[in-house]
Amino acid sequence: MTRRLPASLALLAVLALPAVASAAETVVTLDGGIAGTLNLPEGASRAPAVLMLHGFGSSRDEVGGMYAREAAALAKEGIASLRIDFRGFGKSDGDTGATTIDGQLEDARVAADFLAGQPGIDAKRLGILGFSLGGGVATLTAAAEPARFKSLVTWSSVGDFAKDLKGSIGEKAVATAEKEGVVGLDLGWRTIVLKKGFFDSLDAHKIETAFATYPGAYLAIAGSKDFSAAYPEGFAKLAKGLPKEVWIVPEGDHIFGSLGDDQAMADGVIEKTSAWFKKTL
After folding, report:
1. Spatial contact of 70 and 274, defined as CB atoms under 8 Å apart
2. What are 233-267's pLDDT values in tens digits?
3. What is the pLDDT of residue 281?
4. With bands split at pLDDT 50, 70 and 90, how would you rate the model's confidence at 22?
5. What is the C-alpha separation between 223 and 141, in angstroms, rounded?
6. Under the phi-then-psi rule, with left for phi > 0, alpha for psi from -120 to 50, and beta for the rest, what region is 4?
7. How far is CA 273 from CA 52, 132, 152, 181, in A?
8. 104-147: pLDDT as tens digits
9. Residues 3, 176: Cα–Cα separation, whole Å
10. Distance between CA 220 and CA 245 in Å, rounded?
């Protein structure tokens, strides 16, 4: 049986609008069939770079094209970027049934290796950005390689994998996966299949413990009306590096109004993020 995803998580999985690639962007295929878009600023030489990790059920340009827009903003500051589709999503190989937090961490590692190895990239000045579920994955990725990532930014990040994802998906769907090994979910714009391994992996990783090993800069952005606003202040206290900052966007929702007519909020998040990476990389 396919279960309709509740509205609370549908925001995590809303369809990313297509964005037009700039002349500086190249579509790339990484090991494992991971699809990505590499943005190298014109005339870049030893440029800093940012790895972007999308949210649950989304894809590399992200909702409202926010990651494509962020890549363009970074390029204006002379910062390169790579945004990827996790395996099973977007244009990457694989299927959603194989999705686990561990698998997404591996995808992030592969992408970081690829980005660091590109000509014109300064591998000693890498940042990482994660949106929603991708925020938790980005935090764990930065903590796993503290010497690699100098700056971490999260947008609307989950704070507890098990609580946030299981709670939003719902007890019945989780119970179905536990009993039958698999459950179908209707995201509103597509259906996906998740297996028991996905839910097991949520329990295996704790985001708050990652800050014990991550020494770099940290910026957390969340909307005041979103569940994610409950986490940044506590995480900032745990973060050991400097600078660190929390921005709770007044009246902000999970996607910063990026699907509405007024793009001021989304633009503000994009501008804040590019300025942060310019300062910290």
Report:
1. yes
2. 999 999 999 999 999 999 999 999 999 999 999 99
3. 98
4. low
5. 23
6. beta
7. 12, 15, 10, 40
8. 999 999 999 999 999 999 999 999 999 999 999 999 999 999 99
9. 10
10. 7
The alpha carbon of 38 is separated from its chain's Cα centroid by a whole number of angstroms, namely 16
User: If DSSP codes are grouped into helix, strand and coil, which group holds residue 225?
Assistant: coil
Structure tokens at 226: 């979103």
Is-cis flag, bond preceding 6, omega within 30? no
Per residue in 168-212, pLDDT (tens digit) is 888 888 899 889 999 998 877 778 899 999 999 999 999 999 999
Residues 6+ apart with CB under 8 A from 235: 139, 159, 207, 208, 211, 218, 220
Quickly count: other Cβ atoms within 10 Å of residue 231's Cβ: 23
Token pair recorded at residue 279: 């300062």
Distances (CA, A) of 3 to 88, 100, 132, 173: 19, 19, 21, 7
Task: Give the type of residue at 101.
Answer: I
CA 243 – CA 23 distance, rounded (Å): 33
Q: Do residues 75 and 50 touch, judged by C-beta distance below 8 A?
A: no
Phi-psi region of 57 (alpha: psi -120 to 50; beta: other; left: phi over 0): left
**Which two structure tokens, joined as six digits, stand for 104?**
């997404």
* CA-closest candidate to residue 269, choices 166, 169, 132, 145: 132
CA distance to 92, 135, 153, 249, per residue, from 105 (Å): 15, 11, 16, 28
User: Is residue 154 classed as helix, strand or coil in its secondary structure?
Assistant: strand
Place of tokens 């698998």: 103
- Residue type for position 253: D
